[in-house]
Amino acid sequence: PAFDQFGNVSSQLSFGAKLAMINGANTIVGLAVNPLDTTWGTAFQNLSNDTSTTMVVPLSGNASIQQAAIAHCASMKNQNVFRTTILGTDGIAAGGNVTPAQLQATALAINNPAVQYVSPTMFRYYNAALGVEVPVGAQFAAAALSGMHAARGAADSLTRQQVAGFSSIVELQGNTTMNANAQAGLTVVEQKAGTIRVRHDVSTATSPRNVNTREFPVLLQTNNMIRNVIEVFDNQVIGIMKSNTQSLIAIQSLMNSL
After folding, report:
1. Tens digit of pLDDT for each residue in 185-212?
2. Residue 224 CB coordination number (10 Å)
3. Cβ contacts of residue 103 below 8 Å, gap of 6+?
4. What confidence category does residue 72 fall into, taking pLDDT thresholds of 50, 70 and 90?
């Protein structure tokens, strides 16, 4: 069960998976973590063996674990397995004391087009079975966003798209703060007229900051294209196509069909 009898999250994995599925994901790889493995090293190593995974969401606000997730994606890229990660700070565990400036500094330090970082840090989930609102950290909003990405094409932006599963946002922020957050590379989730939605689907990349690095769907589409090219060469070219004057034309034709 995702919740205990008092409404507290008792299984981060169950709750995160539920939010991803509510938002459209139909295939999830869920990895339970040994509580004694504080670095989650074994879990990330196990995930390395599943080359179909494209997005990683550590259901933790722990900074060292988040850095491990980023390092895992970088390591997999070196093996031609292209992954992104979505992160969120656990404002509940931090006692609600995470300031926008602190969150902005976190995103600026990451500065990575393959990383999306959610703002704000606290949301509410309505537990219908218990009839109570449960405050949860932004790592669960990250899980919800991963489900939204999974339900859409790689090039489809989440900008202005509704996030399902949450009843409200704990930290309501003004436009000035939300603009500053986005400028620092945070993916702002806002509550507007009762609707919870993604304000702008951006990555943490700020230097350089242009459409190719800022817009998270651009990287998702790039990764998707690279995967398709690798698959074509692996299944239709290498060891199959003979090297002759017609090879280049045949390969160009295969690339044009992607």
Report:
1. 999 999 998 899 999 999 999 987 788 8
2. 17
3. 89, 117, 119, 120, 121, 181, 184, 186
4. very high
